[in-house]
Amino acid sequence: MSNLPLFRDPWTRREAWRKHPVFSNRAMFSSLFPGFGIAVVAFTAYVIADNVYLSSHKQGDVHH
């Protein structure tokens, strides 16, 4: 218990949770959009594959 900070001011003790690393801006931003990076990569791969597939199977203007 000796490694715990000593708070003499009651307001400082109540505000100490704000300095915890879980509440840092980097942690908040990284958990704001979970899976966003993977989704961007997957969507980009899909668009590229779709464009390659459509360019290899081009058909004329067919109207029904």
TrEMBL record:
<keyword id="KW-0813">Transport</keyword>
<keyword id="KW-0812">Transmembrane</keyword>
<dbReference type="GO" id="GO:0032981">
    <property type="term" value="P:mitochondrial respiratory chain complex I assembly"/>
</dbReference>
<keyword id="KW-0249">Electron transport</keyword>
<feature type="transmembrane region" description="Helical">
    <location>
        <begin position="27"/>
        <end position="49"/>
    </location>
</feature>
<keyword id="KW-1133">Transmembrane helix</keyword>
<dbReference type="InterPro" id="IPR012576">
    <property type="entry name" value="NDUFB3"/>
</dbReference>
<protein>
    <recommendedName>
        <fullName>NADH-ubiquinone oxidoreductase B12 subunit</fullName>
    </recommendedName>
</protein>
<comment type="function">
    <text>Accessory subunit of the mitochondrial membrane respiratory chain NADH dehydrogenase (Complex I), that is believed not to be involved in catalysis. Complex I functions in the transfer of electrons from NADH to the respiratory chain. The immediate electron acceptor for the enzyme is believed to be ubiquinone.</text>
</comment>
<comment type="similarity">
    <text>Belongs to the complex I NDUFB3 subunit family.</text>
</comment>
<dbReference type="Pfam" id="PF08122">
    <property type="entry name" value="NDUF_B12"/>
</dbReference>
<keyword id="KW-0496">Mitochondrion</keyword>
<keyword id="KW-0679">Respiratory chain</keyword>
<dbReference type="GO" id="GO:0022900">
    <property type="term" value="P:electron transport chain"/>
</dbReference>
<keyword id="KW-0472">Membrane</keyword>
<keyword id="KW-0999">Mitochondrion inner membrane</keyword>
<dbReference type="GO" id="GO:0005743">
    <property type="term" value="C:mitochondrial inner membrane"/>
</dbReference>
